[in-house]
Amino acid sequence: MKSVAMPQKRDWFCRSGCYIAGQSEKKSPMPPRLKRFIGMLILVALVVLYALIATTVATYRLAESPWYIHLAFFALSGLVWVLPAMGVISWMERKPKDRGDQLTR
Question: Model-level pTM greater than 0.85?
Answer without folding.
Answer: no
